[in-house]
Amino acid sequence: MAPNVLSTSPSSDLQLPMPKDLSSLFVPSMQGPIKSAFKSVMGNPTLAMINMAGGVPHPDTFPILRLQATVRTPNVSESPGEGTLVIEKATSSQSTESLDELLQYGDGCGVDSYCRFLHKHTQRTHNPPYAGWGVIASCGNTDAIGKAVSLFCRPGDALLVERWTFPGTLSSLRAAGVQPVPVALDSEGMVPDDLDRVCAAWSSETPLRAVYMVPTGQNPTGATMSAVRRKSIYAVAQKHNLAIIEDDPYYFLQLPQYGSDSSTDVGEQPESLLPSLLSMDTDGRVIRLDSFSKILAPNLRCGWITAPRYILNKLQIINETTTLQPSGVSQGLISSMLNDTWGMDGWNAHLRQLRATYARRRDQFVQMVERHLSGLVEYTVPAAGMFLWMKIRFGSAAHADPTAMPRLLETMKKCGVMMAPGMPFSSTGPSPSDHYLRAAFALVDVGMFEPALIRLAQSIVAIRDSSAGDSQDPAKIQLVSPVGPVKSR
Ligand SMILES: Cc1ncc(COP(=O)(O)O)c(C=O)c1O
């Protein structure tokens, strides 16, 4: 069975400050000591004990006898090959548990070897500047967001969010009866002065206790906070004693400047990456959420949470009444790949290759936008992630026309191109002048960028002209480059 929350070793903590105690910000049901239901049933059995406490099946009944996977092996020499990893039923490898252990019930923290790698990785990448931080496994950031929010917000409470934000978070807040409180965004993400203003003006009976943000390659705007912006946001959170939920699935998709040589310019890991909020967290007020979805594969459903240990203990208890931990098969595959096959160097080479791939896609997409949408959209070239956020310039006739966006989407559909409208990302509800589209340049073939953007341009012109009285029936728009169906999601 995996040990309790992995935390920094006492020797590495010696020079570091203790985290501030934020437990007064927890919802009342999470304050004070809470006993883990799991542990109160299972206890901590010693080897000498004949343990008959749990409803735990015997591994001899598990029908999966061996797990074998062929994985890409990135390496520093730019020529990825393939490697095989094998997880045996009863024998653990040097660093990964046996299949029997992976398939057995575990606690709310995650598989030991999986967490150990991520602990090492977090130390190396973010080096949190306080004592007693740790990591636990999550089933990805969607899972982790809901759990982190539930620590600080009850139904009727409020959570600070970016004015445009991840719809999964908005849905989770809606389901939990938590009110999103919008904070202004600019091309560098959440605006510190506005965060300060909203907090200072807050007069509701229930205080603001936490702020949620996506600091890198923000979804949907693609905005990335500079190091200076991150420091200012952290200072405002300190001033108003807010916990920070740092949802950062695009952190490792930081891209070189647009127009530079993207194949050679991605830089070494992790020194060339922007500092995370966790890396400046002297107070221990950041709950950092990382996910493998965008950097390995989404349906592994695996991620990890980094926070002060006493906060992780609460999240562990929430895990033990919900998911327990991600699938042991997923954790075992990841652990074996990272620990046994790739090692830290291979992992870093993989992340570098990923950044180069996304940089090439971003550059090619933006070039096509420049070529076909000049004057029709406004945008900032994203410095991370997979999204280009465009404000549509319909012209003055359609400026506040509430039908302009629905008509544009309908026209785009007829033309055979789909992008996400701004509305589901809005933390303030729909507004007739919210004329935004989010295009993701991660999935479709690069060769589809041009026809997609030509279709978008034609659709915008059709709506702009029809609003100006120069009507063109969208059904009659000629497709410049007809293409077959393209798989999208
Ligand atoms: C900002 C943000 N948070 C969380 C998620 C969901 O991540 P996961 O697949 O780890 O649940 C996404 C996915 O699109 C996202 O953009």
* Unique bound compounds: pyridoxal-5'-phosphate
Q: What is the oligomeric state here?
A: single chain
Instruction: Just give the CATH class of the largest domain.
Output: Alpha Beta
CATH homologous superfamily caption of the largest domain: Type I PLP-dependent aspartate aminotransferase-like (Major domain)
Q: Low-confidence runs (pLDDT<50, min 5 residues)?
A: 482-489
Query: What shape does the CA trace take?
Result: globular
- Written as H for each helix and E for each strand, in order along the chain, the element string is EHHEEHHEHEHEEEHEHEEEHHEEHEEH
CATH topology tier name of the largest domain? Aspartate Aminotransferase, domain 2
Please characterize this protein's 3D structure.
By secondary structure, the protein is of the alpha+beta class. The chain folds into two domains: 6-350, Aspartate Aminotransferase, domain 2, CATH 3.40.640; 393-476, no CATH class. It is 33% helix and 15% strand. The strands form five sheets. Strands 1-4-12-11-10-9 form a six-stranded mixed beta sheet, with helices on both faces. Strands 13-14-16-15 form a four-stranded antiparallel beta sheet, with no helix packed on it. It has a two-stranded antiparallel sheet with strand order 2-3. α4 crosses α10, α10 crosses α12 (449-467) and α11 (404-415) packs across α12. The radius of gyration is 24 Å and the shape is globular. The chain starts with 5 loop residues before the first strand and ends in a 22-residue tail after the last helix. Mean pLDDT is 90; it is low at 482-489. Pyridoxal-5'-phosphate is lined by residues 140-142, 166, 168, 214, 219, 247, 249, 291, 293, 298, 303.
